[in-house]
Amino acid sequence: MRYSDLFGKTIKDAPKDATLASHKLLYRGGYLRESTAGRYYLLSLGLRVQQKIQKIIKEEMDKAGAQEILTPVLHPIDLWKETNRTQSVGFELMVIKDRNKTEFVLGGTAEEMIVDLVRKFQISYKDLPFNIYQFSTKFRDELRARGGLLRLREFVMKDAYSFHATEADFKKEYEKMADTYINIFKKMGLDAIKTESDNGYIGGEYSHEFQVVCDNGEDEIVYCPGGDFSQNSEITKIKEGKRCDLGHGPLKKVKSIEVGNIFQLGYHYSSKMKDATFTDQDGSKKLFYMGCYGIGLARTLATIVEVHHDEKGIIWPKEVAPYDIHLISIGDEKLATAEAQKIYESLNKAGVEVLWDDREDVSAGTKFADADLIGIPVRLVVSQKTKDKTEWKKRTESKTELLGIDEIIRKLS
């Protein structure tokens, strides 16, 4: 992609109401723009990052044996009435009517829809267990949207739902999903801490959040850095400073951001929704035992920026960066542009994703500052000084080196 053609450029100033680093940097870097409170446009750069986040999630969910589906956006309100969640959710449901005066809600989560789908089939014990998931837009009419992408009224979520014959079988999937989540976040450059939490309006008896330590987080956890204990401060009765059970040292209380959650649902939904049953070995009808598992993609994107940035801008982990290379041509426009064009074409041919700052009449300093702000992992500079080589610099380092195109491709492979 030529930067001159990119829709959405860098700007100097962030919105006055932006307080978090992620909100400021994503806005200034040309990743997003606000529509109305809690609803954002993802521009080209932002969407590329979210798509890479989604790709990582999908790969790990598929590897764990889950199957991707897609539900309608509009949920018949009668389904939510079956579970009484028209009254019990922690946000205002958004209700609309079609031309036949049938009422629907814009789904903030999809437990009822998924149970309704599953009960349409003649499920037997032989079909169990299974885990189905989707990437879909969720709507939550939050009282106060804030923090840029951290608390939205409209966002894409990966939500998964597992169905089991027994609690024992469910517990195996629950632990598998916990391990899968840790792997997902690790691949994105996030050290997520599995944390005991409250189930809230989702229902069920226990749940865990995946929290990332961050000074700007809206949550607070008490945890052991050794990894054997973590609880959300909303539920914990254990104080900071207590030694953990395995002797790792004193527990810490820190600010954090929730990037995912997993829930034991048990019979919470199957007991409330008619015919949410399977046929057991003895021919009897039994209730499904369930779990659910969620990750908000935009919130995860913002958390990556909160963790990976400096005073100059974003520092994307390579797995989720919008491009692999930020190519810059400076100096004599004709010579530098011609050489950069060759490198650009060679990298593209090799399957390397390149953002080429081909702007004319823009200073080298401005181009370098924009590269730091945008945060792509590697910067390449073509100029008269580099001759038949190209200057290579990682976003996380100050040193540079001169490399040929073959060396660059080898380093990226």
Descriptive overview:
It is a single chain. The model has no long low-confidence stretch (mean pLDDT 94). The protein is 28% helix and 29% strand. The radius of gyration is 24 Å and the shape is elongated. It has helices spanning 21-28, 44-63, 77-82, 85-88, 111-118, 167-187, 297-307, 333-349, 364-374, 405-412, and strands at residues 32-36, 39-42, 67-68, 74-76, 94-97, 103-106, 130-139, 154-164, 193-197, 206-213, 219-223, 230-232, 252-266, 277-279, 285-287, 289-296, 309-310, 313-314, 325-329, 354-357, 378-382, 390-394, 401-403. It has 413 residues and is an alpha+beta fold. Strand 21 and strand 22 form a beta hairpin. Strands 3, 7, 8, 9, 10, 11, 12, 13 and 16 form a 9-stranded mixed β-sheet that branches. Strands 20-19-21-22-23 form a 5-stranded mixed β-sheet, sandwiched between helices. It has a 3-stranded antiparallel β-sheet with strand order 4-6-5. The relative contact order is 0.13. Helix 2 packs across helix 7 (297-307).
Summarize, please.
This protein has 413 residues and is of the alpha+beta class. 28% of the residues lie in helices and 29% in strands. It has ten helices and 23 strands.
